[in-house]
What does this fold into?
Amino acid sequence: MNYMPRIGDLAPDFETLTTTGKLSLSEYGKDSWVILFSHPADFTPVCTTEMTGFALEKDFFAANNTKLLGLSIDSIHAHIAWVNAVYEKTGVLFEFPIIADIDMKISKLYGMLQPSESETAAVRAVFIIDPNRKVRLLMYYPLNVGRNMEEIKRALIALQTSDANSCAMPLNWKAGEKVIVPAPKTVDTLLERKASDLEMVDWYLAKRNL
It folds into this structure.
C-alpha cells in the first residue's frame, strides 16, 4: 500500500544516501524547517528548471531556517552526473542534498508514487516539515507541470508567521500584509472586538497588522 502522510502527521523518519552523504531526516531537520521535494527523474527538462529554482533561492531558505532535501528514483551516480552537467552548463550548483531513492523506499513511504501517473517515477511532491518533524503542508503536481516557487516560499513564510503570531492568513496573503485574528468565542470577547481598532469585515472576520 502506498502510504501518504497527512497534514499534522509526524513525518516518517528515514536514513538514506544523498549527494552530500548519508543523512537521517530527524537529524537533518533538527531545530529547523525542512522542505522535502521529489522530482520524476534526473536529466529531464522540467526537473532541471525546478532544481535550479530551489538552488537559486538558497539564501532565502537559509535566512528562514529552512533546509532543502530533494529526491528522485535515480542512483547517486546519476545525481552527481546531473549536478555536474547543470553546473557546467549554467553555473548553478545544487548544494542541497538529493536523495538517491533507487529502491523507491522513501517514495513509497511518502506517497510520491502515484500509479495512475507513473509506477517508476515520483510525482512532484512538496512536504513542508516543521522543527518538530510535523508535516505542515503538502503540494502534489503531475509529471508535466512544474511547481510555483513563489507559492512554496509564500506558504513557508505564512506557516512560520502563523506559528509566531497565533493568526491565520487570508487569500493571497504575502509577508507584511494584514493577518486574520481568531474569531471570538464568548460574548465578552465579541464586545472587546467591537471596541477594538481591528479592521472589522464582520464580527467573525477581523484583520490586524503584525
